[in-house]
Write a structure and sequence with these properties.
Largest sheet: 6 strands, parallel
CATH topology: Rossmann fold
Radius of gyration: 16 Å
CATH superfamily: Alpha/Beta hydrolase fold, catalytic domain
Order of helices and strands: EEHEHEHHHHEEHH
Structural class: alpha/beta
CATH architecture: 3-Layer(aba) Sandwich
Shape: globular
Number of domains: 1
Length: about 220
């Protein structure tokens, strides 16, 4: 019987970001983002996301904002393992500009939607390296719910967390431009890995995940 790995994507992509991962003997089960309620706190949102987890003591894999949400879920239920990729464990690991933007509530003043004029910059920060990846990210931008996006950006910039489970494993790329590796402490650093490495370095990430999950 295959073991389920519950996958939570980040802000810049949906469950398609996991489609290149290959983990024999494991079933990757994406947890879909749900529409937030008005002024919903991240901890209350996590309670609703748990409804998609249909077993006790799960393995959770979270990418970017999905890693942060994984920590919030681990506050509510016991997890076998929490693996976060291209993510952070606390606000202290955010780049300074993010902490400042949250403090000044710039996300409520400036538009967060990606426009054609900024897409190239946004793609570079994500680590988009070819046309296939560009189309993947562009498709998500077009389909993303604006209410969810505004809510999620606000949660990232204003995240208050000083806790992490003892069984958390942090995988990060040394070329990540969203959350620079110099600001955080990762358990495994992937050479030349970008913020999108779960997709464009899927073979290497799959091998590392298989090793970590088997322990």
């Amino acid at each position: 019987m295959s073991q389920k790995i519950y996958c939570i994507s980040g802000l810049g992509a949906d469950h398609q970001v996991f489609k290149r991962l290959e983990l024999n003997g494991h079933e990757l089960k994406p947890i879909p983002w749900i529409r937030p309620e008005k002024n919903e706190r991240i901890d209350k949102y996590a309670v609703r996301m748990i409804q998609c987890i249909d077993e006790s003591f799960p393995v959770i894999l979270g990418v970017s904002f999905g890693g942060m949400m994984g920590i919030e879920i681990a506050k509510l239920i016991n997890v076998k393992k929490l693996i976060i990729i291209s993510s952070i464990k606390s606000p202290a690991e955010m780049p300074q500009w993010m902490r400042l933007a949250g403090k000044l509530q710039l996300n409520k003043i400036l538009p967060i939607k990606s426009y054609k004029i900024t897409e190239r910059i946004d793609n570079d920060r994500l680590g988009v390296s070819n046309e296939e990846e560009r189309l993947l990210v562009e498709q998500y931008r077009r389909s993303a719910d604006s209410m969810y996006m505004n809510w999620a950006v606000n949660q990232v910039l204003n995240w208050k967390n000083g806790w992490q489970p003892g069984n958390i494993i942090h995988i990060h790329g040394d070329k990540d431009k969203i959350f620079p590796v110099k600001n955080l402490k990762a358990d495994h650093v992937v050479k030349n890995g970008t913020h999108l490495m779960v997709y464009n370095r899927a073979k290497e990430i799959s091998e590392l995940l298989a090793e970590l999950i088997s322990k």
